[in-house]
Design a protein that fits this description.
Immunoglobulin-like; 2 domains; 5-stranded antiparallel sheet; transmembrane helix
Length: about 240
């Protein structure tokens, strides 16, 4: 809508200037409109003079008409060029003003977008904080090996919910998943010397906390012992060999 308004404004401005410059041209050449009308009346009368007035008279009249016409055309051309230059200057001035206004509007819009983006980021940050508050945390893991059994005692900030497990080969690994939203606050890699389980690796996933028990032997064991406690969870792994 703003673009259509300015286009119409340019056309109206051009017509106003064209009319004004035409009037200035007439006043500068003839002095007033009466003289302008009188001169053109004479030219018209000469142009329609009777043919029986003689060849010499007709020739003289034709020369007068040509000279007057040429002079008028030259002055008209000069005045037209002046009008066009003035109109161009005025239009360019208006365009610069419009561009400045558009730049100001765009700056305001960009500022509004920036504020909206900052608000969205703040909301996202609040959501992340809320999610972190909801997530359970693994705060401690004690590992002990007695005979042919490894016991991993996990301390958590919330009670442990669903727990799943499965075995993997090459190398032999027992994978235990604590389902839900979790955060890990202990070391991710835990080495165990002189044991049939030589390393416990903790991995984080969006919907689970994963513990991987890497065995030294090639044999796979059976179901691990899973015991929920008031502090968290105890995982018992038997030596399969």
């Amino acid at each position: 809508m703003l673009t259509i308004f300015y286009r119409r404004f340019y056309i109206l401005l051009f017509l106003i200037w064209l009319t004004a410059m035409a009037g200035v041209f007439v006043l500068s050449v003839w002095g007033n409109f009466d003289t302008f009308i009188a001169d053109f009346s004479k030219i018209a009368q000469v142009g329609i003079a009777p043919e029986n007035s003689g060849n010499s008279k007709n020739g003289t009249n034709v020369d007068v008409v040509k000279r007057a016409t040429n002079a008028i055309m030259h002055k008209t051309k000069v005045a037209g060029n002046a009008v066009r230059m003035e109109v161009v200057r005025e239009v360019r001035g208006v365009e610069r003003a419009v561009e400045q206004d558009v730049d100001e509007v765009e700056a305001v819009v960009e500022s509004t977008r920036g504020s909206s983006k900052e608000t969205q980021e703040e909301k996202a940050g609040l959501l992340d904080d809320t999610q972190r508050e909801r997530a359970a945390k693994l705060t401690k893991m004690d590992i002990s090996v007695v005979d042919d059994q490894l016991l991993a005692s996990l301390s958590t900030t919330k009670s442990v919910g669903r727990v799943t497990y499965f075995w993997m080969n090459d190398p032999t690994r027992l994978v235990v998943d604590l389902r839900g939203e979790w955060e890990n606050e202990i070391s991710r890699i835990n080495d165990i010397p002189d044991s049939f389980v030589n390393r416990v690796i903790i991995g984080m996933h969006p919907d689970r906390l994963r513990l991987v028990f890497r065995l030294t032997g090639a044999s796979r064991g059976g179901k691990p012992g899973l015991l929920r406690t008031s502090d968290g969870l105890e995982i018992a792994v038997d030596n399969p060999e």
